[in-house]
Amino acid sequence: MRGANRPRVLVAGMQYEVNSFTAGTGTLEIFRTRRLAEGEGVFATSHGDEISGARRVAERHGVDLVPVFITFGGAGPVLEDEAYHYMRDRILAGVRREAGRIDGIYLPLHGAMATKSISDAEGDLITRIRAVVGRDMPIVATFDMHANFTAEMERGLDGVVGFKTCPHVDYPETGEAGMEILVKAIRGEAKPILVHRKLRMMTSAEGHDTNTGPMTEIIALLKEAEKAPSVLAATVIAPQPWMDVPELGWSIILVVDGEAVRARGQAEADRIARHCWSMRERFRSHRIPLAEAIDIVVASAEAERPFVLSDASDAPSAGSFGDSTVVLKHLLARPPLPGPLLLTLTDPEATRTCQKAGVGARLSLTIGAAFQPQYYEPVTVEGRVLCLAEGPYPSELPPMHIDAGRRAVIEVAGYIQILLSEKPVITLDLKGYEASGMYPREAKTVIVKSAGQFRGFYTPFAFRIIELDTPGPVDSQLPRLPFRNITRPLWPFDPDLDEPWPGAD
User: Fold this and answer.
1) For 293-303, what is each residue's pLDDT tens digit?
2) pLDDT by residue (tens digit) across 361-385?
3) What are the extents of the domains in the chain?
4) C-alpha closest to that of 440 among 346, 343, 359, 362
5) Radius of gyration over alpha carbons of the chain, in Å?
6) What is the pTM of this model?
7) Interatomic CA distance for residues 97 and 83, integer angstroms
8) DSSP for 168-196?
């Protein structure tokens, strides 16, 4: 250890989930308005996330953490190169400054960042950090379940831990597990070695729920694998499927203790990977056509609890802008449903118009398709302003404050309540609605724009959840999207593929 008594661990990360099919390009402003912190600000902005878990372990083991840099940008379009360069250079400056005075590095990453010219930003960052500190410095990273783990990441890391929950609620636990591995490596109590099996398989996010469905079996296999003394961590990576990059595919990653057990660990990773492959058809998404879904709602109009309809193809949490009018247009073209019905719509101009008009104002608005006219069309409505709001609000998922800008709630057609906002409202939890005076538990129907993670918050009170087959950049039928850069063959793009990885048979 480089310190006289207490080891020192550098902490730095960047977190962003790219969607290759949304319009425009992302800039550094995305991160500045959500989370971008340096030095002690890294800890000051850390609440219920991976870093908070890592800090608990460090304190327990007498390890000093050296906070350098952290960003969170949510999900969105491919980034401008300059945005990544800024984050990369701030992190590398901290690594160079502390090199020779630290004993390890902890990287809280997402694992799904891409720019115009770099398809694997995290891999590039890890490689550059390794070049500064050398091969002997232990580096451990934590990842979102929806990362895309690459060969370049594998070459540069000693340990990897990913979320085991979807909806993601194990942020602190993931940070704790990553820091435990790092501390053992620093103290010489373990020699972490990565074993990795990449699968030629992609699945839409609806099937990733760890409370029900096929993913529960995989998590059980991982937890069973971790009972072996030689296994320090076991992780499944099921990538966010709307990123058009090389090497896209599921991964099973084990961190084993020492070279002597590498082969045994690889065999276990392969066994779990084969099980994933055998279940691939069970991960297919089965969204229901919009007209059919609304007919189901009408047929159960007397239900005492709300229907929850997932318009996942426009999910801001997966990189869309939340500006779809598809559901709204359909509702306006048919007889009214029992109300209230809640939905969100990102439209900066319409929001500002409502803010200027004030609560109680009645006005005609053309709304929607503000960002993605390639997918959606604007709609003209007559509405009454029910509520105005602005400013960040606390969110449970993700665990941070969300800034959706100024917001306005308007009532249309006597029963549709539309939450207009300058920036996308994330509906993984209830906070986006509640912060604007809308209460999903009391509604008849609630539209959420999420590809699965909303279930943890909405299932307890929903009469029924229906996933809608609507167009957009978060389409669950992946072959319908214009992929160009993925490595083929890859299931389901190649439906007859029968070998999970080259040489598997």
Assistant:
1) 999 999 998 99
2) 999 999 999 999 999 999 999 999 9
3) 8-283, 288-475
4) 343
5) 23
6) 0.93
7) 22
8) ---HHHHHHHHHHHHHHHHHTS--EEEEE
